[in-house]
Amino acid sequence: MSNADMRGNRPLSPHLQIYKPILTMVMSILHRITGAALYFGTILLAWWLIAAAAGPAYFDLVNGIYGSFIGRLILFGFTWALVHHMLGGLRHFIWDMGAGFGKEAREWLAKATIIGSVVLTLVLWVIGYMVR
């Protein structure tokens, strides 16, 4: 038998349509999405810093954009993505240490990441408005 025959009879790799979505799978996908969103947010942060260095008029323009409803909504989403990605990284760190592999622990960590990211984002924004 040739190698071509052996390769031709191998099963196809499974894909997302075969797997039943579970919370840890969704969290893994969301971790990748938030990581990609952080690239966009970093560009916004760099733009703000460049505007601060460019002078008061340009800085006021950028602050006006960020201070609008849409700007604040984007910044809120960036904050949530940052916090969620950080907590997801901590979850992976716990797994790297060899803990949290049981079914209950995995589910608890996934739920804690979701709830923690929302709560911490809200706390950060409330503190930000109180300090302001």
TrEMBL record:
It comes from the Bacteria. Pfam families: Sdh_cyt (PF01127). PROSITE patterns: SDH_CYT_1, SDH_CYT_2. InterPro entries: SQR/QFR_C/D, Succ_DH_cyt_bsu_CS, Succ_DH_cytb556, SuccDH_FuR_B_TM-su. It is found in: Membrane. Keywords: Heme, Iron, Membrane, Metal-binding, Transmembrane, Transmembrane helix. It is a multi-pass membrane protein. Gene3D superfamilies: Fumarate reductase/succinate dehydrogenase, transmembrane subunit. Its cofactor is heme. The chain crosses the membrane at residues 37-59, 65-87, 108-131. Belongs to the cytochrome b560 family. NCBIfam families: succ_dehyd_cytB. Membrane-anchoring subunit of succinate dehydrogenase (SDH). Part of an enzyme complex containing four subunits: a flavoprotein, an iron-sulfur protein, plus two membrane-anchoring proteins, SdhC and SdhD. The complex can form homotrimers. PANTHER family: SUCCINATE DEHYDROGENASE CYTOCHROME B560 SUBUNIT, SUCCINATE DEHYDROGENASE CYTOCHROME B560 SUBUNIT, MITOCHONDRIAL. This is Succinate dehydrogenase cytochrome b556 subunit.
